[in-house]
């Protein structure tokens, strides 16, 4: 009897542990979904690389919205481009065969993104053109397995990234500009959902079950309500029952009027840059090519972000508690052009020295010095990091926000030894920087001081 009783208690204890482990159940409404805690890895990651890649890389002109500008809006410059570069009967579908990806080297991409300092990567699985970069069973041959590369681009990159322990995010557009089913639903005032249940939702479930992403970067949401997209039901399944329910992160583009209001973290808008500290976790997405997210063969050097502006954007973003997602657009062959590689590697070199002030950091009580853009703060526990953009001519950096104590110590990342400091006449610190030219440091711009023992 004693052994039977023990067995019954063991069963009861096992059931209790299973019940505790199952966690909360989320219902398909925003009040419940928005209450889900954001998995901690995302806030700690801080830096990601965005990859916009699709059939739009074949014309490689204007932007990734080429098809819409050409045959949706019918902009004359796009029609002229087509007349000058392609036969008169060319359709957008004809571009798919030229989307070869024959130089796509996923392990090199993964190495490059790791050297750039990225802790996560987001790949376009399907843009608004509808072409999928994996063998979607509902893509009707408009995908990278049945035409063009004849390769599972999503799967190959995911495998290479995970070999380097880089988190994998999947961008997916809810809408497709010219899909007849979507156009019919739109014509019906989004009262019918034929496109959603035969195309969008099957794709999202397939992506999750097949690739188990760490992040879903939704887009193409702006025309229909959540009742059309069925997005809250999908997210409830994602959080409750999917194979990534405990780790997956999502953004805020799941329906019209959703951005900056609902979702896991907020994008709010492309290249969003708040002026004050947001109360919700957010991400700034931007592109090295300031005029396009996809590759353009006609881009000019003056249209690209330089190293200084990339680092300044990153520091601004992280000081305000955000993540920084920097985009590149590969060619139709799968090449990340050298100028993009150079920008990514420059960012990585800066992070090699200053990453301590970026990764897993938190906003400090003051985000910028005297509301300027030249001195920014981050923190880890009681440690405060000061990132300054301009080396003062006097060699002395004045900070009014940190309050020194007898135990205050000041060091510089990438430089050995303590720095001298004294109390400022009013308040704050006067820090004497190393008496050497800034050019001798491992990085030549945007330096970081580490303050311990400040109040």
TrEMBL record:
<keyword id="KW-0378">Hydrolase</keyword>
<dbReference type="InterPro" id="IPR017853">
    <property type="entry name" value="GH"/>
</dbReference>
<keyword id="KW-0443">Lipid metabolism</keyword>
<dbReference type="GO" id="GO:0004560">
    <property type="term" value="F:alpha-L-fucosidase activity"/>
</dbReference>
<comment type="subunit">
    <text>Homotetramer.</text>
</comment>
<dbReference type="InterPro" id="IPR031919">
    <property type="entry name" value="Fucosidase_C"/>
</dbReference>
<protein>
    <recommendedName>
        <fullName>Alpha-L-fucosidase</fullName>
        <ecNumber>3.2.1.51</ecNumber>
    </recommendedName>
</protein>
<dbReference type="InterPro" id="IPR016286">
    <property type="entry name" value="FUC_metazoa-typ"/>
</dbReference>
<dbReference type="GO" id="GO:0005764">
    <property type="term" value="C:lysosome"/>
</dbReference>
<dbReference type="GO" id="GO:0006629">
    <property type="term" value="P:lipid metabolic process"/>
</dbReference>
<keyword id="KW-0458">Lysosome</keyword>
<dbReference type="InterPro" id="IPR000933">
    <property type="entry name" value="Glyco_hydro_29"/>
</dbReference>
<keyword id="KW-0732">Signal</keyword>
<dbReference type="InterPro" id="IPR018526">
    <property type="entry name" value="Glyco_hydro_29_CS"/>
</dbReference>
<dbReference type="GO" id="GO:0006004">
    <property type="term" value="P:fucose metabolic process"/>
</dbReference>
<dbReference type="Pfam" id="PF16757">
    <property type="entry name" value="Fucosidase_C"/>
</dbReference>
<dbReference type="Pfam" id="PF01120">
    <property type="entry name" value="Alpha_L_fucos"/>
</dbReference>
<dbReference type="GO" id="GO:0016139">
    <property type="term" value="P:glycoside catabolic process"/>
</dbReference>
<dbReference type="InterPro" id="IPR057739">
    <property type="entry name" value="Glyco_hydro_29_N"/>
</dbReference>
<dbReference type="InterPro" id="IPR013780">
    <property type="entry name" value="Glyco_hydro_b"/>
</dbReference>
<keyword id="KW-0325">Glycoprotein</keyword>
<comment type="similarity">
    <text>Belongs to the glycosyl hydrolase 29 family.</text>
</comment>
<feature type="domain" description="Alpha-L-fucosidase C-terminal">
    <location>
        <begin position="367"/>
        <end position="451"/>
    </location>
</feature>
<feature type="domain" description="Glycoside hydrolase family 29 N-terminal">
    <location>
        <begin position="25"/>
        <end position="356"/>
    </location>
</feature>
<keyword id="KW-0326">Glycosidase</keyword>
<comment type="function">
    <text>Alpha-L-fucosidase is responsible for hydrolyzing the alpha-1,6-linked fucose joined to the reducing-end N-acetylglucosamine of the carbohydrate moieties of glycoproteins.</text>
</comment>
<feature type="signal peptide">
    <location>
        <begin position="1"/>
        <end position="22"/>
    </location>
</feature>
<feature type="site" description="May be important for catalysis">
    <location>
        <position position="285"/>
    </location>
</feature>
């Amino acid at each position: 009897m004693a052994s039977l009783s023990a067995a019954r208690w063991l069963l009861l204890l096992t059931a209790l542990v299973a019940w505790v482990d199952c966690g909360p159940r989320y219902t398909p409404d925003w009040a419940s979904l928005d209450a889900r805690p954001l998995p901690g890895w995302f806030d700690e990651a801080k830096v990601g690389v965005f990859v916009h890649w699709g059939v739009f890389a074949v014309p490689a002109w204007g932007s990734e919205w080429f098809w819409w500008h050409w045959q949706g809006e019918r902009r004359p410059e796009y029609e002229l481009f087509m007349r000058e570069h392609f036969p008169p009967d060319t359709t957008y579908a004809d571009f798919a065969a030229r989307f070869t990806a024959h130089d796509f080297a996923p392990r090199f991409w993964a190495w490059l993104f790791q050297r750039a300092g990225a802790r996560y990567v987001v790949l376009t699985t399907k843009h608004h053109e509808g072409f999928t970069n994996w063998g979607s069973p509902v893509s009707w041959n408009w995908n990278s397995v049945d035409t063009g590369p004849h390769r599972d681009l999503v799967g190959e990159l995911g495998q290479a990234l995970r070999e380097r322990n880089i988190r994998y995010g999947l961008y997916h557009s809810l809408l497709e500009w010219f899909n007849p089913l979507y156009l019919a639903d739109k014509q019906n005032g989004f009262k019918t959902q034929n496109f959603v249940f035969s195309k969008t939702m099957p794709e999202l479930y397939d992506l999750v079950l097949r690739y188990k992403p760490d992040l879903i970067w939704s887009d193409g949401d702006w025309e229909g309500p959540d009742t059309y997209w069925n997005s809250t039901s999908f997210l409830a399944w994602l959080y409750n029952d999917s194979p990534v329910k405990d780790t997956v992160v999502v953004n805020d583009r799941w329906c019209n009027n959703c951005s900056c209001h609902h979702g896991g973290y907020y994008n709010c808008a492309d290249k969003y840059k708040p002026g004050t500290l947001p109360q919700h976790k957010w991400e700034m997405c931007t592109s090295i090519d300031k005029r396009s997210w996809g590759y353009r063969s006609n881009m000019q050097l003056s249209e690209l972000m330089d190293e200084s502006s990339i680092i300044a954007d990153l520091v601004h973003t992280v000081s305000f508690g955000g993540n920084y997602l920097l985009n590149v657009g590969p060619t139709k062959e799968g090449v990340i052009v050298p100028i993009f590689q150079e920008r990514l590697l420059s960012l990585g070199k800066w992070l090699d020295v200053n990453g301590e002030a970026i990764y897993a950091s938190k906003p400090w009580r003051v985000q910028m010095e005297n509301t300027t853009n030249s001195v920014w703060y981050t923190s880890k526990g009681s440690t405060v990091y000061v990132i300054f953009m301009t080396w003062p001519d006097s060699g002395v950096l004045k900070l009014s926000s940190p309050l020194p104590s007898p135990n205050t110590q000041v060091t510089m990342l990438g430089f050995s030894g303590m720095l001298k400091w004294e109390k400022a006449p009013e308040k704050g610190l006067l820090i004497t920087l190393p008496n050497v030219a800034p050019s001798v440091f491992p990085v030549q711009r945007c330096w970081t001081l580490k303050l311990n023992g400040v109040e």
